[in-house]
């Protein structure tokens, strides 16, 4: 057979037909963050929900202020304030059923408190008397997570396990804009979508990862757009509009509970305070920008809606502030007491049973403490 | 008297049997990882499990080690006992943050309220002609992380027993599987496999009077071979198989060295900052007055794991061990 004949015998087949696996259009976020307050839709919002959100926002703002003051008094090692972001924090806590789980990052103490945690226990990590001050199973709040985005796969795994057990539990995981650059963010979203796990990811885009602005963090059209690549819906919401955040989160939670799988929500908000008390925010942003966001304050937005509709008057505002003040006074008083620490706790929870090596070290510390005691009595 | 039917079995078969028995005994045990389902694992350790227990309990995950271990954390939080496979030693590195920042310390962070009973299976070590990133001995990293148990079997029977113990443990266990022993055969009773003592006990594999070889995992058979060869030189070597690197069995090791007065630590991973330094120090602290010579180390070189055509020069072999044993006839420098 000649070469030409061979060529003639070769019948190229077309490649297997290719089609996109799904229509990406329904996954795409809206072009603008979803808003309720200040629009006609606000009239349909439930007055009881509005009042509850308002009371929690005022309390949350006061909590942030009190905790920040406690850092200045040296009572807290550090406090990453969520002032300006209270609408996200509060909505995240209120949208969940009791059986659901919340996976907070280090900035989300307020969400944990709004979910019912003792405010003092919620601050244990930041005070420095232990790493976590509460039993995560009690309120179904995972430990505050300091490494970025590493709590997201935990949320996916827990939601997946719950579904395997036949429980209609949803996990809500909180992360910041900086956290979306981490590998764990990617892996968590991918696993969640592949497993159709009942989990909701809420990105609080507050503008900065410490000092790095969003435009240096990502080239995506929006953080919500990242959802499309995983095959889950992305939603964009005004993070300072408590009603809008509550609605969008509520829909995503219901969707997950019904077996619809995960959702990625980007709440566009702003961190009014510095990253922590150790940060100087004037080095990376102008006062004008902060003032613009102050004018779009989550409490003011909701207060305006409530007063316009005659659901709130001066005495109602005062009542909310008084309740917040009572919480703050209690927090202040309890945080000003020195925690009682047992140094032997250092060895208590490394393993179910201490290793022989840890028992030796335990004995050493016990002897040192006894010698200290003896010295003190002398 | 009942007769026990002993049959030749490989370490891989014993591991499979351990996984199957653990899953049958406890419905909360879940196996997950890349290729563990349909394929049965690249080393076939999970062979047949997906068919027997279904995809919900034997899950082929997306290819992402941090995701595999990170989701296992969440599953353990909800009451499951995940057994995750990291396909090869060096493939586990992307999961290090999850391992170190969460798996190892969740019990501690939460004052004991959130223990994580996760078993992380890591095929490790060289000697199988693997290309780069397929032969690392990463045990020193795991040993340096409080909150983890670190175990490694050297025999078929221990592979079964230790894996059952690891899965039953309420603490996370890094289970290091010596790849080059996967196909090693032993007489073993697959009908009535035995469990082992609690994790943390070493075992004397060979008794002897003149020196102790302290070793574990893939180096155990090498040390036994060296001990046999050493008889020609008049050395009667004892071989201690650690089985568990964390917790460490000081008692068995020190008792052996006190009997023999001399010790060599043998492992594949690099010597500098490696397990041998820790072990030599512990032995010296406990047996100083019994020692006739310094505790020596025979380890892999302090190099990135070499390409397969050179690995025989890197791995501690019988000759290098015998050399060290010869140096135990130590005389103080004048």
Automatic annotation (TrEMBL), chain A:
<dbReference type="Pfam" id="PF00676">
    <property type="entry name" value="E1_dh"/>
</dbReference>
<feature type="region of interest" description="Disordered">
    <location>
        <begin position="1"/>
        <end position="23"/>
    </location>
</feature>
<keyword id="KW-0670">Pyruvate</keyword>
<dbReference type="InterPro" id="IPR001017">
    <property type="entry name" value="DH_E1"/>
</dbReference>
<dbReference type="InterPro" id="IPR050771">
    <property type="entry name" value="Alpha-ketoacid_DH_E1_comp"/>
</dbReference>
<dbReference type="InterPro" id="IPR017596">
    <property type="entry name" value="PdhA/BkdA"/>
</dbReference>
<protein>
    <submittedName>
        <fullName>Pyruvate dehydrogenase E1 component subunit alpha</fullName>
    </submittedName>
</protein>
<dbReference type="GO" id="GO:0009083">
    <property type="term" value="P:branched-chain amino acid catabolic process"/>
</dbReference>
<feature type="domain" description="Dehydrogenase E1 component">
    <location>
        <begin position="65"/>
        <end position="341"/>
    </location>
</feature>
<keyword id="KW-0560">Oxidoreductase</keyword>
<keyword id="KW-0786">Thiamine pyrophosphate</keyword>
<dbReference type="GO" id="GO:0000287">
    <property type="term" value="F:magnesium ion binding"/>
</dbReference>
<dbReference type="GO" id="GO:0016624">
    <property type="term" value="F:oxidoreductase activity, acting on the aldehyde or oxo group of donors, disulfide as acceptor"/>
</dbReference>
<dbReference type="InterPro" id="IPR029061">
    <property type="entry name" value="THDP-binding"/>
</dbReference>
UniProtKB/TrEMBL annotation, chain B:
<dbReference type="InterPro" id="IPR033248">
    <property type="entry name" value="Transketolase_C"/>
</dbReference>
<dbReference type="GO" id="GO:0000287">
    <property type="term" value="F:magnesium ion binding"/>
</dbReference>
<dbReference type="GO" id="GO:0009083">
    <property type="term" value="P:branched-chain amino acid catabolic process"/>
</dbReference>
<dbReference type="GO" id="GO:0003863">
    <property type="term" value="F:branched-chain 2-oxo acid dehydrogenase activity"/>
</dbReference>
<dbReference type="Pfam" id="PF02780">
    <property type="entry name" value="Transketolase_C"/>
</dbReference>
<feature type="domain" description="Transketolase-like pyrimidine-binding">
    <location>
        <begin position="9"/>
        <end position="184"/>
    </location>
</feature>
<dbReference type="InterPro" id="IPR029061">
    <property type="entry name" value="THDP-binding"/>
</dbReference>
<keyword id="KW-0560">Oxidoreductase</keyword>
<dbReference type="Pfam" id="PF02779">
    <property type="entry name" value="Transket_pyr"/>
</dbReference>
<dbReference type="InterPro" id="IPR009014">
    <property type="entry name" value="Transketo_C/PFOR_II"/>
</dbReference>
<dbReference type="GO" id="GO:0007584">
    <property type="term" value="P:response to nutrient"/>
</dbReference>
<protein>
    <recommendedName>
        <fullName>3-methyl-2-oxobutanoate dehydrogenase (2-methylpropanoyl-transferring)</fullName>
        <ecNumber>1.2.4.4</ecNumber>
    </recommendedName>
</protein>
<dbReference type="InterPro" id="IPR005475">
    <property type="entry name" value="Transketolase-like_Pyr-bd"/>
</dbReference>
């Amino acid at each position: 057979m000649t070469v030409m004949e061979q060529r003639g015998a070769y019948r190229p087949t077309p490649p297997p037909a290719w089609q996109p696996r799904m229509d990406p259009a329904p996954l795409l976020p809206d072009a603008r963050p979803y808003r309720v307050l200040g629009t006609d839709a606000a009239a349909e919002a439930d007055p009881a929900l509005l009042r509850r959100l308002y009371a929690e926002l005022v309390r949350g703002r006061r909590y942030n202020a009190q905790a920040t003051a406690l850092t200045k008094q040296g009572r807290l090692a550090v406090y990453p304030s969520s002032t300006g972001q209270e609408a996200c924090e509060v909505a995240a806590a209120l949208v969940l059923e009791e059986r659901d789980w919340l996976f907070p990052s280090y900035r989300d103490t307020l969400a944990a408190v709004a979910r019912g945690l003792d405010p003092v226990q919620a601050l244990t990590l930041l005070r420095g008397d232990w790493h976590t001050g509460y039993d995560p199973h009690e309120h179904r709040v995972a430990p505050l997570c300091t490494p970025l985005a590493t709590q997201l796969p935990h949320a996916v795994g827990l939601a997946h396990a719950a579904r395997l057990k036949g429980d209609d539990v949803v996990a809500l995981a909180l992360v910041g804009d900086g956290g979306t650059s981490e590998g764990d963010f990617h892996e968590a979203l991918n696993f969640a979508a592949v497993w159709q796990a009942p989990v909701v990811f809420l990105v609080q885009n507050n503008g900065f990862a410490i000092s790095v602005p969003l435009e240096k963090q990502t080239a995506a059209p929006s953080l919500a757009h990242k959802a499309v690549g995983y095959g889950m819906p992305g939603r964009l919401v005004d993070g300072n509009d408590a009603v809008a955040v509550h609605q969008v989160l509520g829909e995503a939670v219901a969707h997950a509970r019904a077996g619809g799988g995960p959702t990625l929500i980007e709440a566009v908000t702003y961190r009014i305070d510095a990253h922590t008390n150790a940060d100087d925010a004037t080095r990376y942003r102008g006062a004008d920008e902060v003032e613009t966001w102050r004018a779009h304050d989550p409490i003011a937005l909701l207060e305006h809606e409530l007063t316009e509709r005659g659901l709130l008057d001066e005495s109602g505002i005062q009542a909310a502030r008084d309740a917040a003040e009572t919480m703050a006074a209690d927090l202040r008083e309890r945080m000003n007491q020195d925690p009682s620490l047992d140094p032997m706790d250092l060895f208590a929870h490394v393993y179910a049973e201490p290793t022989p090596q840890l028992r030796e070290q335990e004995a050493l510390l016990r002897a040192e403490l006894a010698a200290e005691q003896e010295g003190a009595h002398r | 008297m009942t007769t026990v039917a002993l049959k030749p079995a490989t370490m891989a078969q014993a591991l499979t049997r351990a996984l199957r028995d653990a899953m049958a005994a406890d419905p909360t045990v879940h196996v997950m990882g890349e290729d563990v389902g349909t394929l049965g694992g690249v080393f076939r350790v999970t062979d047949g499990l997906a068919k027997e227990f279904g995809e919900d309990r034997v899950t082929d995950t997306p290819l992402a080690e941090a995701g595999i271990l990170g989701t296992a954390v969440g599953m353990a939080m909800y009451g499951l006992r995940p057994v995750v496979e990291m396909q090869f030693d060096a493939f586990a590195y992307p999961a290090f943050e999850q391992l170190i920042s969460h798996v190892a310390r969740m019990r501690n962070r939460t004052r004991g309220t959130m223990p994580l009973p996760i078993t992380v299976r890591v095929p490790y070590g060289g000697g199988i002609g693997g290309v780069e990133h397929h032969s690392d001995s990463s045990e020193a990293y795991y040993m340096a992380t409080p909150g983890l148990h670190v175990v490694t079997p050297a025999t078929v029977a221990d592979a079964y027993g230790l894996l059952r113990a690891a899965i039953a443990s309420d603490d996370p266990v890094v289970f290091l599987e010596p790849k080059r022993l996967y196909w090693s055969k032993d007489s073993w009773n697959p009908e009535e496999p035995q469990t082992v003592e609690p994790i943390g006990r070493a075992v004397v594999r060979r008794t002897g009077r003149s020196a102790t070889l302290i070793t574990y995992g893939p180096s155990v058979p090498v040390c036994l071979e060296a001990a046999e060869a050493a008889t020609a030189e008049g050395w009667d070597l004892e071989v201690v198989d650690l089985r568990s690197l964390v917790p460490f069995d000081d008692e068995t090791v020190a008792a052996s060295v006190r009997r023999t007065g001399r010790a060599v630590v043998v492992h594949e991973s690099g010597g500098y900052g490696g397990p041998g330094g820790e072990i030599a120090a512990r032995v010296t602290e406990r047996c100083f007055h019994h020692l006739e010579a310094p505790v020596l180390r025979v380890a892999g070189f302090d190099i990135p794991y070499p390409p397969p055509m050179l690995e025989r020069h890197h791995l501690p072999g019988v000759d290098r061990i015998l050399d060290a044993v010869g140096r135990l006839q130590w005389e103080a420098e004048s």
